[in-house]
Amino acid sequence: MDKQKEDKKGIRVAIYCRMATDNDECRGLEMQKSQLRSYAQAHGYAVMAEVSEVAKGCSLDRPGIRELLSMAAQDRIEEILVANLSRILRNTADLLRFEEKLGKKDIRLNALQGNPLAEFRGIERAFQREKK
Known about the structure:
The protein is an alpha/beta fold. The protein has a single domain (about 5-130), classed as Resolvase, N-terminal catalytic domain (Rossmann fold), CATH 3.40.50. The protein contains 5 helices and 4 strands, in the order αβαβαβαβα. The chain has helices spanning about 5, 25-40, 65-75, 90-105, 115-130; strands at about 10-20, 45-55, 80, 110. The longest helix has 18 residues, at about 25-40. The radius of gyration is 15 Å and the shape is globular.
């Protein structure tokens, strides 16, 4: 087992899936869940909850997001797995605020299809170092 996989063994995660209202919502949610379950199993994660909803990604005021925040407040999870960050929110500024709120509880967002927030945070830290 490689070191990175070993470090993540047993991390408590919530799987989050979202589809905008459309005709293929059930199939789309199941495809996301299947992909995320496989990833979690391959990395030895402990899946504490699966949260899925059919809603637009324009706002954090959704039952699924409230459920994730409740789990975070109760220290039930360490990471949220999503297929892609657009499943959480489409608005980048709101997504950054959401990630910051989770970060205060040491909870990570893990997007299987790349994580531009991590890249952005790295650029932001480098910029802050240069400013000093």
